[in-house]
């Protein structure tokens, strides 16, 4: 039985419980509140099928209402957050979600503000900022569990289901097909199915079904009962979708039907569903779904022995992956800077009187002593790790994590033995070439240079190196720079930023984190220890 290897991006339905505005006041542009609310609702209808048109209309409403701080302005900000999420612009999605959240809180609209926490959590997880994502989701879960206990109505149940969905989404972005991922998907689906059958509710139920099905399809092993359940969930969702048609939902149902048939080795049925999904994904301008469908089409054509079409879809997948990676990388850097700026500003905004200042100084003195003790212990621990690394280098042993049999993999399928040997041989050559210090190296670019697909390459690295692609590249880079530091004294004089750049890392921070994780010593301490020992040896 084939396994799904695609890194599927969940779709979260943006469901707002919007009540019509009946006030007839004029806004600053001369339009009534009724008119602007009508424009916003029209943009909402266009959201999934024509996002560019939805964006133009929503932005117009935003400009008309931005000085009024009313419900239409909040809903429009939330709508813009979802539009930018669909378009892959996490920076703007978070920006508008935070604006909407603040306005909802001012208006005492708790469920709406929780909606925004979910969007913010989702976008942070796409950017790899998992601590911020979980923190926002914890706040949302706490609020909605309390509200459902107080009143078990459709609004509260739907937002609770969405909040569980968000938690499972975070685990999925962390590439963890774990019990927690299945658990939160199940909780989301079970709550979604409690909702009354309305167009909005049924659309959310279909999306929740897609997410749960996708989780089961990515499991390494599935029971016959689970496989049967997958088909039943999909069949019910497709039947419901026909009652209330929606192109976005139809696209993801087609994709997951394709995944189901692919795992059952029914290539013809899988191909039909994937081609339909691709057409629909292009129609609704969902770049993430387009990428994932191209990957699965490449694998399907490979199974059907059609190398020309396999290569075509593999190239399309690589192009879209690169486009998404560049967009997310740019947005990540922006959000990290924003978070740091917020932390710095928050301290200086509030004025403290002399008594509080004195207390803070006392606390800081206590903390500084505690930090000093902690750093001393940390330094001893790091020195012990440093000695182990130096000992390995002197014995000409690899400093990389040894490969064991304890492999935890997100998704695996069978790679032909001859193809696996070929990829392993090319990986050996790659490791010896130092090509891994190229900043632009990626799974897709390396797969292309190996004349294979990303699924095969990722699986071989997971199975034989006991790590994912990013960790594999990071460890090669750290091993490279550690050997340079040990064997060339000139490198001990370089700044950390220079070492990061030479070894292929995009920033000082990512290099420091990878270095510490790989060998258990920060780069600055490693250099300090090595410099000290080098001077002692020279003096002796």
From TrEMBL:
The keyword Disulfide bond does not apply. Residues 421-529 form the HTH araC/xylS-type domain. Residues 1-25 form the signal peptide. The keyword Lipid biosynthesis does not apply. SMART domains: HTH_ARAC. It comes from the Bacteria. Keywords: DNA-binding, Membrane, Signal, Transcription, Transcription regulation, Transmembrane, Transmembrane helix. One of its GO terms (molecular function) is sequence-specific DNA binding. PROSITE patterns: HTH_ARAC_FAMILY_2 (PS01124), PROKAR_LIPOPROTEIN (PS51257). The chain crosses the membrane at residues 354-373. This is AraC-like DNA-binding protein/polyhydroxyalkanoate synthesis regulator phasin.
């Amino acid at each position: 039985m084939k396994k799904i290897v695609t890194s599927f991006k969940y779709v979260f339905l943006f469901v707002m419980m919007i009540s019509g505005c009946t006030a007839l006041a004029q806004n600053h542009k001369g339009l009534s509140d009724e008119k602007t609310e009508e424009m916003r609702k029209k943009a909402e209808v266009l959201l999934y099928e024509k996002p560019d048109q939805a964006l133009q209309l929503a932005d117009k409403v935003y400009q008309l209402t931005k000085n009024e701080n009313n419900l239409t302005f909040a809903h429009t900000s939330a709508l813009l957050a979802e539009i930018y999420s669909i378009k892959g612009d996490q920076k703007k999605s978070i920006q508008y979600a935070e604006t909407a959240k603040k306005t909802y809180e001012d208006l005492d609209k708790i469920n709406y503000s929780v909606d925004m926490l979910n969007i913010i959590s989702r976008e942070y997880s796409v950017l790899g900022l998992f601590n911020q994502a979980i923190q926002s989701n914890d706040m949302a879960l706490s609020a909605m569990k309390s509200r459902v206990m107080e009143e078990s109505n459709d609004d509260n149940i739907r937002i609770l289901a969405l909040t569980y969905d968000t938690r499972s989404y975070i685990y999925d972005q962390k590439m963890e097909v774990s019990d927690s991922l299945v658990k939160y998907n199940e909780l989301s689906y079970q709550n979604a199915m409690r909702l009354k059958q309305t167009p909005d509710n049924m659309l959310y139920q279909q999306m929740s079904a897609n997410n749960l099905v996708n989780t089961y399809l990515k499991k390494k092993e599935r029971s016959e009962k689970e496989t049967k359940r997958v088909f039943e969930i999909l069949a019910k969702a497709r039947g419901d979708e026909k009652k209330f048609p929606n192109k976005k939902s139809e696209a993801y149902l087609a994709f997951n039907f394709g995944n189901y048939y692919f795992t059952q080795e029914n290539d013809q049925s899988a191909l039909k569903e994937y081609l339909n999904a691709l057409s629909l994904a292009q129609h609704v301008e969902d770049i993430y779904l387009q990428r994932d469908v191209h990957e699965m089409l490449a694998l399907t054509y490979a199974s059907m022995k059609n190398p020309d079409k396999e290569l075509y879809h593999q190239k399309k997948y690589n192009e879209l992956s690169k486009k998404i990676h560049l967009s997310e990388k740019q947005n990540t850097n922006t959000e990290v800077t924003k978070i740091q700026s917020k932390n710095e500003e928050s301290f200086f905004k509030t004025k403290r009187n002399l008594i509080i200042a004195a207390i803070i100084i006392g606390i800081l003195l206590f903390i500084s002593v505690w930090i000093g003790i902690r750093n001393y212990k940390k330094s001893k621990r790091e020195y012990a790790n440093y000695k182990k690394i130096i000992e390995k280098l002197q014995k000409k042993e690899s400093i990389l994590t040894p490969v064991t049999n304890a492999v935890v993999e997100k998704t695996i399928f069978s790679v032909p033995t001859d193809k696996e040997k070929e990829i392993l041989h090319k990986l050996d050559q790659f490791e010896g070439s130092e090509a891994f210090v190229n900043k632009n190296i990626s799974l897709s670019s390396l797969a292309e240079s190996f004349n294979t697909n990303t699924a095969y390459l990722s699986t071989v690295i997971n199975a034989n190196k006991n790590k994912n692609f990013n960790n594999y590249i990071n460890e090669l880079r750290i091993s490279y720079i550690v050997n340079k530091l040990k064997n060339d004294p000139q490198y001990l004089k370089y700044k950390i930023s220079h070492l990061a750049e030479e070894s292929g890392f995009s920033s000082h921070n990512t290099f420091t984190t990878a270095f510490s994780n790989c060998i258990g010593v920060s780069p600055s301490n490693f250099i300090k220890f090595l410099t000290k020992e080098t001077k002692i040896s020279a003096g002796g």
